[in-house]
Write a structure and sequence with these properties.
It is built from 16 helices and two strands. The chain has helices at about 20-30, 35-45, 50-60, 65-75, 95-130, 140-155, 155-180, 190-200, 205-220, 225-235, 240-270, 275-280, 295-335, 340-360, 365-385, 400-415; strands at about 5-10, 10-15. The chain has a two-stranded antiparallel sheet with strand order 1-2.
Length: about 425
Amino acid sequence: MNTAITTTGNITTRRSWRWQDNIWTLGLYGTAVGAGTLFLPVEIGTRGPVIFLVMLLLGLPLSLIPHLLLCRVYMREEQIADGKLPIFGSFFSGRGEKLITLFYCVTFFPVTLVYGVALVNALDNFLVEHMHITVISRGPLSFIVVAALYVVLSKGRDRVVATMSALALPFAVSVLLIAVSLIPDWHLSNLTSTFTEVKATPMPMILKGIWVTLPLITFSFCCAPMVSPLTSYYRERKAEGESKALFVIRVAYMAIFTSIIFFVLSCVLSIPHSSFVRAKAENLNVLSVMKGNGGFSLIYYVAPFIAIIGMTKSFLGVGLSVAEMCGQLAASVSGKKTTTNKRVASLVLFLLTFSIVYANPDVLNLIETLCGPLIAVILFLIPVYLIYTRTALAQLRGVTVFLVMLGGVATLSALLWSII
C-alpha cells in the first residue's frame, strides 16, 4: 500500500498512502454500503440460498471491474477548467453533453429516493416501536429529514465527503459487530431447509429469480456517483493521478465486498424467515426487524439507529453528484453560470424528494425495476460504447470491456424479464 510507483514524464514518483486517501476510501465505502446492503438480507431471506450463491460469485466482478473501467474513462476526459465533475461530457458535444448529464440525473436521482424512503421508514419505525413516540406523522417527519439532508448537501463537496467519511467508519464497525454478535444464533437450517423448496421449484422460476436479482446486486455494490468526484480529485493532483485513484477503488471494494457478504450471511443464518417476510411487506430494512430476546436486546435498540446512519451517509454520497449535475444542467440550459441556477435545481430536487418520500413507494421494487437497470447503463454500457467509438479510449479495449458489456446487458435485461 505504501510502495505504489508511477512515472510522470521523466519523473518517477513514489507515493505513500495519505490521510486523504482514507477519506476517499471511506467515501466509496459509505456510498456503497448502506440501504442496498440492509435490504439484501431481506431479498435473500425471502428468495433463498441460490441468490446468495449468485451474489457470492458475481458480487465482486459485477462491481469492482466496472468501477475501475469507469474511473479510467473519466480520467481520459478533457480537463474541465470550471470544476465540473467528469461524467462523459467531453466525449459528446452540444446537445449530447446535455442529454448525458440529464440521463445521469435521471439515473441516480431515484437512488436518492430509495435512500430517502428507507431512512424515513427506519426512523419512523424506531420512534414508534422502540421509543414509543407517535406524535410525529409521516408528513412532518419526511419534511424534516429531507430538509436536513439537503442542508448538508448545500455545504459543498468537501464538507459532504468529510461528513460521509465520518459516518462511514462507525457504520462499518457497527455492521461488523452486529454480524459477529449474531454468530451464536446461527442456524444452518435457515439455509438447508430452503433447499427443499428450491428442488421443488421449476428451473425457469429459479433462473428468473436469479436474473431479476442482478439489478439488486448491482445497486447494493454500487458507488459510481462517488467515482466522479474521486476522479476529479486525483487527476487535479497530477502527481498522484490514475494509478492512485484505481488503487483507492480496489482497497475500498475489498472492504465493501467482504463486509457485505459477511453481514448478509450472518443475518440469513440467524433471523427467522418470518422476519424477512415482514420486512418486505412493510418496506423495512433488516436492522429494523431485529427482535430483542435476552442478550439480543442491545441489538434491538441499537440496530435501527445504525440503519439510520447508513441511510444518511448513502443518501449524501449519491445526492452529492446528483445535486452538482443538476446544477450544471440548469446552468447549461439557461446559459448563465450563477448560484441562482444551483439553488433552483436544489429546490426542485428537494420538493420532488419530499413528495416521493412521503408517498412511500416499494423500495425493493424501485431498485429492481428502475435503479438497478439504469445504473447498469451508466456503469456498464456507456463506458463500453465510448471505448469502442472514441479514439482517445482505444487503449482500454480488450476482454475486460467485453465482460463488462455482458454484465450490463444481463442486468439491463432483468428490467424486461421482471415485467414478464
